[in-house]
Amino acid sequence: MNKSYLIKNARIVNEGTLTEGDVLVENGRIAQIDTSIGPKSANVNIIDAEGKFLLPGVIDDQVHFREPGLTHKGDIYSESRAAVAGGITSYMEQPNTKPAATTIEELEKKYQRASQVSLANYSFNMGASNDNLEELKKVSKRDVAGIKIFMGSSTGNMLVDAQKTLEGIFQLDHQLITHCEDETTIRRNLEKAKAQYGDEIPMTEHPVIRSEEACYLSSSTAVELAKKYNSRLHVFHISTAKETELFTNKIPLEDKRITSEVCLHHLWFDDSQYESKGSHIKWNPAVKTSADRDGLWKALLDGRLDVVATARGGPRRRHRLRVSGGAPSARRTAVQVRLRVPIRRSARDGHHREVRRHPQARLGDGRIHHALLRAGLLRRRGGLRAVPGRCPGRGR
After folding, report:
1. Which of 83, 178, 208, 296 could cysteine-pair with 88, CB 3.0–4.6 Å?
2. Could you report how far apart the first and last alpha carbons of the chain are, in Å?
3. Per-residue pLDDT tens for 93-131?
4. Pair 204, 274: CB distance under 8 Å
5. At what angle do helices 212-229 and 183-197 cross, to 10 degrees?
6. pLDDT at residue 29, rounded to an integer
7. What is the domain partition of the chain in residue ranges?
């Protein structure tokens, strides 16, 4: 017999509001939400949540689970386990693994592996490269979260810098996702740093090498291409106040074709902390100035930035502590909401189904929760409960 849970006196975040009340969970489903609920049987585990927040399961749009090829750092099982422990019930994983997921064959291997071991619901992004445009044209919108374009180099060798290829990718009818840093600017700044410091480049140079200029040049190029071809574009991890000028809050979120994301570390840290924290705050794009941090907060609060994320996927400590121009970065964990993408059920549930999130959903907005509840798609631990049946649209 399934145990029922009655969560009492919680501060419930739902439908864009914060209210105090109770939540009853029966047979793995949310059965009732009310100001006060009494136990309906003896088989109820009562949890007193007084003073605590109760939120819907989080959707993480940017994770790096390092499988295949880098599983000494983490794999789909270990990282999905960490995600569920932290309240994240659905994730979208990035393609910069070894080998990179730049072919449908490699991407399918990830789906197959996740169907066996993932403890959370999942989808995977297809990776773009300078020479796989024809492969990208075969990718199904109904089965693949998005196409990830590294317009600046980061973990993995997936830089897309051929203008003709970029023009072709931005004409695709798919959700496009970009990592934006101008490679020419980064390389020029790195050479200057090497000339000054040799191989012992101090960590304080990281935001100088991966500068505001590098970020803005790349982000503005991506936005320009998206406007030219009316692409659906989502720009990952905005890190400068200047970049926020590229985005608007003048139209409803559900009508935006160009959206953006900010990561928690860019909202929390600034470049004054590199001296004390070193590579523990080294990300690509780099943490910038306190003025940039303040500008990001302003843009997030006024609706120009649409998503908060962190991008789970940490290398082991000994990898983080290598300091050079190309040193690995500490990676992140994420919180997200907006993109309309398919999510498959977790391996423990045994079936797949496409799930598209409520088009008006925003961070902390329980409309996601209620849209899925009404559709009968909720399962235990706040995830998506799918109806038996294979996810449609394989796109072969």
Report:
1. 83
2. 42
3. 999 999 999 999 999 999 999 999 999 999 999 999 999
4. yes
5. 170
6. 85
7. 58-320
